[in-house]
Amino acid sequence: MSGLSQNTEQRVYTVGAELPPLQVRVTRSQLVRYAGASLDFNPIHWNERFAKQVELPDVIAHGMLTMALAGRLVTDWLGDPGRLVSYGVRFTRPVVVPDDDKGALVEFSGKVGEVRDDGTARVDITAKFDGKTVLGKATAVVR
């Protein structure tokens, strides 16, 4: 695991260690499934005509879906989601999802930004769509 070394009782984090990158294609089909699971049926996430009426470029992904995918970057790296202590983001730009089979490519990367005396570390996460950041101040604290 990049950025971690395993000894008998604890993991040691290294400032600057990079997490393995994650690329995810978000499709309209996934948006429909996410809407059903989250009960978020806002038409900006499935109705192109409505999205454009409210001055969006097209249907956009749920912000919480994008946040969840960024969280997956960290939990996959940790190997144990229970070691995620806290996690937060700001939504800065939408992920526009085209009406095709390829969907929108969202790219996630992360780096250990701080190691704390209490055995935790802060991971700084970057989420990009179309070369632009879509989540701001995305950080996770891990143990």
From TrEMBL:
InterPro entries on file: HotDog_dom_sf, MaoC-like_dom
Residues annotated as domain MaoC-like: 22-126
Cited Gene3D superfamilies: Hotdog Thioesterase
PANTHER family per the UniProt record, alphabetical: (3R)-HYDROXYACYL-ACP DEHYDRATASE SUBUNIT HADB, 3-HYDROXYACYL-THIOESTER DEHYDRATASE HTDX-RELATED
Family under the similarity heading: Belongs to the enoyl-CoA hydratase/isomerase family.
UniProt-recorded name of the protein: MaoC family dehydratase
Organism: Amycolatopsis taiwanensis
